Structure formats: C-alpha cells, structure tokens
C-alpha cells in the first residue's frame, strides 16, 4: 500500500486469521506406526530384499511427521509463517501438527501486569510531580503484535510512559476548593482516561488494556515541602472560614432569640459587645474563662 500524499510507503496493518492445522493425536498414531514398521524392516534387512526400501520410507515418514508437532497450552497462540509469509494463527490447545516447512512462533495471550517506573511530569499548573502506573494488558491480535511493531513488550512499556505523561499534564495535581478534576481527587475518572489513552496507543500492536491505575502520585521532592506548607495554609484558611461562618450564624440566632423572647433589651453598643464576646468564645482556639461583671457595661 502506497501513501497518496507522497510521503512514501505506508504501514500495512496485519490482521489475525485462523491457521489450517491438524490435531496432533492422529499424526502421533501415524508416527508410531512408522516407528513399528521401521523396527520391523530393520530386523528383515538380511532376509527380505524389500526391507531396505521400507526402512528408508519409514524413516522419512517418521522424521517428516515428528518435525510438525507443537504443543499449545491454554491462552497461548502460535503464529505460522511460510518463508516469511503469514499463514495464520492457531489458538487450539493440546497437541497440534502442521507441515514441517512451516515456521512456528509461540506467544502468550494471557493477561500481563506491569508497573511502570516513576517518572517526573509537569501537571496542568506546571508543578513537577512524580507518577507511576500499574497496567494489566494482553495480546488480542497476534499478527499485529508480531508483525506491526518490532518488539511488542518494549512497545507497551514506552507507550505506558507516554500515556502517563499525557494524562499527568492534562490535570492539576490538587485543587483544595474541589472546583475542577484533579489527579489526586478523581482517581476513577483519571484512571479511566488513562485506560482509554492506552487502548488507543496500543491498538496498532494488537494489544488491549483490561485495567490500569496509578501506584504512585506525589509532588516532586524539590517542591514537596513548599506544597505541603501551602496545603496546610489552605486547610487552616478553609477551617477558619467554616468556623467563622458557623459562629456568625450562632450569634445571629442568639440575638434573634433574645429579642424575640424579650429576655433583655440591647442597644447598639450592648449588641456590639455581645457579638464581640460571642465571636471570641466561638472562634477562640483555647477554652474561655468566664468573668462576672457586677457593674454595668458603662462602668
């Protein structure tokens, strides 16, 4: 296939097809029969004139049949080629047989688990962070895995690193106000996007991703201390804000109930003093010590 844009030959995508192979058990019986004939003809070499010809034929049959055997376990496949031409893939388990001149290459279609190396990535806000991912992948198309990429296992490792970098730069590491999607606060969503990204990247190699997620996610060491202090400051501010909002509500409720039940008549100055005292009591970090005022507010 030629590229119509003039960039040269384009990559031809392979596709897995079933191979024409035979069960090895029938051929095993034929090989045993050839072995029996071989032994019998060897004992008749000095007696019968036909014995040498039968011996040669049985040796050829025994050798021809024995070379074509191969064994497949569950979740294994064998790719069969003839002088470099792809002839199909056999996934039938057990003892199998094909023509001796066919080249056979086994590969596993079982699930593989890989944990990537920790890599340094700049998040959406430019902060350097460290990330590592755990990916469960498997081969779905043996022809693509062997013929469309040079080394599909190395290809998986490289594409995992590239996908982690892409996802890591797409979101900020953290957002204390929870107004946007973050790497730390939205594991399921970000992990789903990482899986989608990996499936798209590995499709060319006939590989799919069953599961993935982050095994390590943290600020880089050079800014970890500063970001920790920033998070602590943001937490203190948020806690103070919540505390003040609650205290204001309680003061408002107290003043409304005092006025509604005519417990005490408060002018503006007394109201301000009560508000000040209540805010100190409610917002203070230490236990308050009550003071009994025997006089009036103006003394």
UniProtKB/TrEMBL annotation:
Residues 67-235 form the Band domain. It is found in: Membrane. PANTHER family: BAND 7 DOMAIN-CONTAINING PROTEIN, MEMBRANE PROTEIN-RELATED. It is a single-pass membrane protein. The chain crosses the membrane at residues 22-43, 50-72. This is SPFH domain-containing protein. CDD domains: SPFH_like_u2. It comes from the Bacteria. The keyword Transmembrane applies. It comes from Sphingomonas rustica.
């Amino acid at each position: 296939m030629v590229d119509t844009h003039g960039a040269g030959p384009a990559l031809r995508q392979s596709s897995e097809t079933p191979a024409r192979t035979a069960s090895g058990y029938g051929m095993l019986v034929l090989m045993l029969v050839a072995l029996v004939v071989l032994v019998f003809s060897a004992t008749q070499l000095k007696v019968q004139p036909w014995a040498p010809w039968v011996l040669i034929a049985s040796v050829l049959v025994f050798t021809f049949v024995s070379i074509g055997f191969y064994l497949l376990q569950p979740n294994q496949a064998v790719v069969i080629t003839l002088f470099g031409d792809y002839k199909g893939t056999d996934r039938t388990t057990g003892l199998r047989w094909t023509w001796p001149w066919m080249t056979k290459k086994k590969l596993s279609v079982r699930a593989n688990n890989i944990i990537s190396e920790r890599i340094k990535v700049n998040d959406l806000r430019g902060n350097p962070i460290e990330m590592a991912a755990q990916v469960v992948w498997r081969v779905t198309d043996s022809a693509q895995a062997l013929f469309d990429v040079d080394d599909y296992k190395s290809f998986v490792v490289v594409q995992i690193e590239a996908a982690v970098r892409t996802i890591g730069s797409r979101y900020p590491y953290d957002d204390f106000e929870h107004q946007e999607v973050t790497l730390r606060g939205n594991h399921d969503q970000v992990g789903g996007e990482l899986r989608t990204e990996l499936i798209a990247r590995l499709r060319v190699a006939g590989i799919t991703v069953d599961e993935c997620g982050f095994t390590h996610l943290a600020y880089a060491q050079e800014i970890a201390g500063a970001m920790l202090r920033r998070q602590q400051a943001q937490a203190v501010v948020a806690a103070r804000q919540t505390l003040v909002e609650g205290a204001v509500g309680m003061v408002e409720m107290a003043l409304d109930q005092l006025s509604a039940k005519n417990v005490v008549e408060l002018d503006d100055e007394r109201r301000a003093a009560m508000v000040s005292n209540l805010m100190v009591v409610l917002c203070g970090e230490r236990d308050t010590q009550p003071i009994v005022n025997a006089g009036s507010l103006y003394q």
